[in-house]
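Sample intake sheet
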Amino acid sequence: MSELVTTVREAITELALGDRGFRRFGASAHRYELAPPLDEDAVVAIERELGATLPPEYRDFIREIGAGGAGPAYGLFPAEVAARAAIRQQRGPWHVALPLAHFGCGYVVVLALDGIARGQVWLDARAIDFVATIRPSFTAWYVDWIDRLAQNALPDGFVPAGACALPSALSGYFAVWERRLGIPAGSLAGDALRDALAQLGPGAIEVAADSALPLFEPGDRVDPCIVCARLVTSFASDGLDQKVLAPGVPPVMLR
């Protein structure tokens, strides 16, 4: 844990200085701000709430660095709030997991608290049948986020391409225009593509939560995952702006 204790605050300060407009993925949500650390009594209360001890790396982080805020995806959930929203399952390599962050599109990053997966960081994207380990530990997950941003590299997307609702929605929208113009499927390009995208104003596309998501109500509007955000960015030269995506609501536990 000494690596994080000595470097995280300085690293986050540097990241914030390099992104004053909060343009990096998720930055407008966490704004590079860490919540104050918790005292031992508060951490013990969290463990009592969960019915499980916290993995040492995460426990030390919320005791010595911050109990939420700046972090991967849309930022770390406040530890005390996350404990009340623990995710439980009957089968699998873990039975109890602590929500760490909203990954986007309603998916959640979790920290396994028991079983053979204890201490591992998982992505719970059950709405698209993707529940898998993404990093071996909390430290590995958090340091990878710092390293990638420091090198101006994009975060890992993890979610299989085309699995989310947004790609299908855009494909359907393009298909309508292709039929309207009487051109072959998949051939919308050039001025015709730009004309189609110009019709999509700010907030024109909403990503809605699926009924299978653990931290959102069915139909809740959610912020996009990195894969969907990249998809929108890929059309930037054709005039599509990230503002076309309607902003999402916070997870239920934060409202």
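Comment: The radius of gyration is 20 Å. The CA atoms of residues 83 and 249 lie 20 Å apart.
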